[in-house]
Amino acid sequence: MRFTTMLLRAALLLQSILADQVLGVASLDDSTRARCPSGWQIQRELGPRLSEKAAVAVPSSSDWDRLMVRAAAPRISPRFMASVEVATEKDVQETIKYANHIGVPFLVVSGGHGQPTTLNNLHCGIQINMRKMNDTTVSKDGKTATGGGGVMQHEIVASLFKQGKMAVTGLCECVSLAGPLLGGGHSMLQGRYGFSADNLVSARLVLANGSAVTASAAENPDLFWAIRGAGHNFGVATSLQVKVYDATQNWTMIIFTFTQDKLERFFNTWNRVEDENDDHGTIVLNGHMGRDPDIDSVHPVIGLAIFFKGQNNVIGAYTSAFLALGPVSHTTVTDIPYGDLYDTGGMGTDGLVCRDDHNILGYPSSFPRWDADAMRAGFALFSEFTGSEKFATSAWLLESYGRKGVETVPEDSNAVSPEDRRYHLLTSPMLWWAGDDEQDRARAMSFGKRMQTAVRRNSKTPPHAYVNYAFGGEPLPEVYGRDGARLARLKRLKAEYDPHNRFGFYVPIR
After folding, report:
1. 221-238 pLDDT, tens per residue?
2. What is the pLDDT of the chain when averaged over all its residues?
3. Do 150 and 122 sit in the same domain of this protein?
4. Are residues 199 and 71 in the same domain?
5. Residue 346: domain span
6. What is 109-154 written as a DSSP string?
């Protein structure tokens, strides 16, 4: 079980953690850097404009280190002059208006898990910390809930479950509600209910000019379309109203571990069981490859966790198919209440990947089917890379969160790329190491790109990367979709709502 409790938990957590709330960034030119204000100036001038519960911290403040913690640091280290802990929507407005007035960038953060390299281009900026806006309220009819822009997944899961409800969130309890949703949001529930973005009913947004608006099907519908899938480009979400569902059925988790000699059979079996069971309900297949020297001292091994809700008519086909491969271990945990699912499955706040200040670097790809030969080529590189103790905790994600729920949502209903609906398999080597050595970083980048190239080499579909996993710098069609009319619409809306590219560092639409 050592393999399960460490590497499997890391892999399960990584999906949402990469997309955690990075909701607003402002660009900064050279002339602005020349007039960079001090943190004390920002505190003195902005502080009186904010609500009583808000606070402005500067580098010498006792809270500064706590506010600067990031999951992907020190590789990702935006440079701030001040941090504003906002408590109201008006605080967000005042902060953005002030930043615009003095000509400095801003970055909105809840959990601090954004990983695109372009975040490092933020200098002399203001952090807008959303964590004080962390309330959750269920509507009187019990069909929706509203979460604050800073609410974390563990908070909304616990709050809703006390009332017998659940929402389509991310996959890790130490990330925000907003971050994964704005980029689409894969979920334990998507096989039945669609992406997190598909479940957004309305949102309150503070725009680049500091104005606050509602985005919904009835109000600002174009903006509502855009923020569901490309939301990091358009505004700061101060609250989100989402659909909720009854959380009455318990879950089951089945865990397999395989040695690498089963790799080709493993991926071919995965393809076969999904081919034979098109509508498999709420079943999540979440696997990874990683090091466990107690099982194999030379190569990484393969782990697979299958989660399903309630009774499922096809789960027997899945378990028997993978059991036939001869796993090293096979464990089943039953009767897991939804409120405990993330902790039990290794996705809770104490999980390995929720540790602070460890570099995370991913090279994602999405496919409609596994190519076993290509995965073997990538595995060989991954095995070489993780043979170094420095990188030995890296994990290669192998994910399928369900198809029918996302495929039944019309592709033109929001800005989630059509490829995310068509290519249900996600894979990414997630390279993980501590420290700030340039040679380590260069080695990780080199191997990551080679692994991505290897798994894509035989693909009959154009390259696609899920935006919440994006490394930064990918071509726009690779993350937002290859339909020209869709990209043109996104660019038009970007020009309308953010003409000066104030939200311009997180996979920007330019």
Report:
1. 999 999 999 999 999 999
2. 91
3. no
4. no
5. 2-9+249-480
6. ESS-----GGGGG--SEEEEE-TT---EEE-TTSSEEEEETT-BHH
